Amino acid sequence: MRAERQDPELDRQLAVMREGSVDFYGEAELRERLAACRAQGRGLRVKLGMDPSAPDLHLGHTVVLGKLRQLQDLGHTAILLVGDFTARIGDPSGRRKTRPALRVEEVRRNAATYVDQAGLVIDAPRAEVRFNSEWMERMTSDDVVRLCSHYTVARLLERDDFAKRYAAGEPISVHEFLYPFVQAYDSVALRADVELGGTDQTFNLLMGREIQRAYGQAPQAVITVPLLVGTDGREKMSKSLGNAIGITEPPEEIYGRVMSISDALMLGWYDLLAAGEWADLRSERERLGSGSGEPLRFKQALARRLVERFHGTEAAERAEAHFHRVVRGREAPDEIPERRLAAGASGDRGLLEVLVELGFAASHGEARRLVVQRAVAIDDAVVDDAALRLGRGVYRIRAGKRRFARAEIG
Amino acid sequence: MRAERQDPELDRQLAVMREGSVDFYGEAELRERLAACRAQGRGLRVKLGMDPSAPDLHLGHTVVLGKLRQLQDLGHTAILLVGDFTARIGDPSGRRKTRPALRVEEVRRNAATYVDQAGLVIDAPRAEVRFNSEWMERMTSDDVVRLCSHYTVARLLERDDFAKRYAAGEPISVHEFLYPFVQAYDSVALRADVELGGTDQTFNLLMGREIQRAYGQAPQAVITVPLLVGTDGREKMSKSLGNAIGITEPPEEIYGRVMSISDALMLGWYDLLAAGEWADLRSERERLGSGSGEPLRFKQALARRLVERFHGTEAAERAEAHFHRVVRGREAPDEIPERRLAAGASGDRGLLEVLVELGFAASHGEARRLVVQRAVAIDDAVVDDAALRLGRGVYRIRAGKRRFARAEIG
């Protein structure tokens, strides 16, 4: 009866699912369900929600898509769930500009764009693309009341963003409380066996488990993946923070921007973006983790693999050649003028005045604009803090594409 | 243009509306609207919500019905709103037994019962009886989301009952947050000009104003009336507290129970229950308020008027005669045995031991049961506190219908 308990394929699959995840809720139940599915010759239904208001994918999105592809490779069904019901309503009170209502055509167009781009990571033709308006539009007001009876106000107020806004006295409209129910109910409508998401989605994904239970379904397993840190090395990758690399950006751009990240960030990116591939880089990754190895070569490999993934091998070769010819070429020490700047009274200098003194900007105002436009880099890292102060030391400073200096402050 | 400002009829009507109310929100706007209605020869639409889960009316309900009748007398349209949508859903999570779902037939039957009984106070045939399922069933899930966008979580959590439950860590299901929206939206659907309610409904009634504004309607005026204190002289009248007099109780019962209330409570009841009638009792009411007058005669008049209101003049005469013959007759001093009881060490005696010593009960346990069953009265007032202590003095004590004593403690 319980022969499946010895099935090594089950262990292998669960290990793949677990790999690189942060949390895996309901793993034990999923094992049983997986065994049952295998006995019936069908795959698990794996849900991934997408936000149709932000169709341009960046590397951050590809972490969870990589996990979804791994599950597809195990023979399971990927479901891309488009939250068009909520996107079309947006914020009906008109109070928050961050959630504008989208028109039907816009949602469809965004979803198509999303699927196209997701197809660079997953096997899109085999994925099921669903829109939650399909069931939400059929829901009556009674149904909504019943749905909302299955969760408490106090628990919703524990959700991180709600908790912060409530504590800060910022208004939360009651309709915002309805959206997590919609997202959770989507799992009921889809009969999801597994839902994937970033760790910032944990609350909603777990709510899906409870709402499934309330509707008499076995709860989905929930697998969360880490959030990718952006090129700044600090914040979660996000288009609005300017620290994102879009996967449809030109190959040269992707390559160059990956090359600009710190070595520490590079290792984190490898771990989250490999998605079960790039096995040949693994031993070098381990060497680097223990302090040896060649970071520069590894970063080149990472940049090349990522461009390959989104644009193909040829584009990756071109991007790499371009980088060596143009970017690294112009940074060669013999081409960069050396400058000495006196440290200020406090032993350091403000970035803006340094830019002016180097002749990279005519005024503090112009220098600030360069920083804000992310046109200034120090030691290959873009600097976006106009208040930055530089202590004694040597810096390779770049402004725009043509101005370079090796500045020694002190 | 603004000739209506001098219209004395407007002042008279607003004075009638204000009379005996606790709060009157939107009075100034209502004056304008009333003037416009008069110019168009139509009345105001006056909404009163009823709870179809509790169709048996008691004196407490008749306070607001009296106010509604006064508005009918001024030529306005009474609307009895039956909240059948919510009553039929009840508590869908099944967690709270206090709100069981009602079946359609049950709601209709309860509503009919309610209207029959309300007809003892208002002009029922002229009232509009509406069921909110009429518009709520047509509402889509989109509509519900939009409705809920017009009020914040924080403000709902300020509602007294929610605030207490939230503070006490008691669960509030999110669907409970939807019900005040439904109640408020009813005012939109009915295009209510005025909504009446007890002071415990203030939050919901004012929310109606906001939701009307959100839907582009001028907000209703809100008139709240005080809550009637029950026969115990302490708590709001409520069937579940056992301190209520149902308006369909037998005439003798109503008469006798009104006679049993305290003199102070009697004055409060007169004020809330007169509803613009009983003008001939007004001067005696004022005398009593300043400490003179004859409380017993006034209480008889109040008891008689209330029975008249609900059962007619003949029934009131019969009830009065019955009271004099049976109730007061058996309390005549010459029929009541006189007993002397020693005051205890503390100068008083516990009620239960007094009942035992008088031979009214064989044990403390039996004495306690009598009290709990509300079978014990002291000086015509029912006593329900088994821990009561009686100080030195003379008391007329009754237990059940047959045992009386004039007991002197001291």
Notes on the protein architecture:
The structure is a homodimer of 410-residue chains. With 410 residues, chain A is of the alpha/beta class. The first copy, chain A, contains 18 helices and 13 strands. Chain A has helices at residues 8-18, 27-40, 59-73, 84-89, 104-118, 133-136, 141-148, 153-156, 160-167, 174-190, 202-214, 251-259, 263-273, 282-289, 295-311, 313-330, 351-357, 364-372, and strands at residues 23-25, 45-50, 77-82, 128-131, 194-198, 221-225, 338-341, 348-350, 376-378, 381-382, 389-391, 393-399, 403-409. In chain A, the strands form three sheets. A six-stranded mixed beta sheet of chain A has the order 1-6-5-2-3-4, with helices on both faces. In chain A, strand 9 (376-378) and strand 10 form a beta hairpin. In chain A, helix 17 (351-357) crosses helix 18. The longest helix of chain A is centred in the last third of the chain and has 18 residues, at 313-330. The radius of gyration of chain A is 25 Å and the shape is globular. Chain A starts with 7 loop residues before the first helix and ends with a strand. The mean pLDDT of chain A is 89. Chains A and B meet through helix 4, helix 7, helix 8 and helix 10 of A and helix 4, helix 7, helix 8 and helix 10 of B.
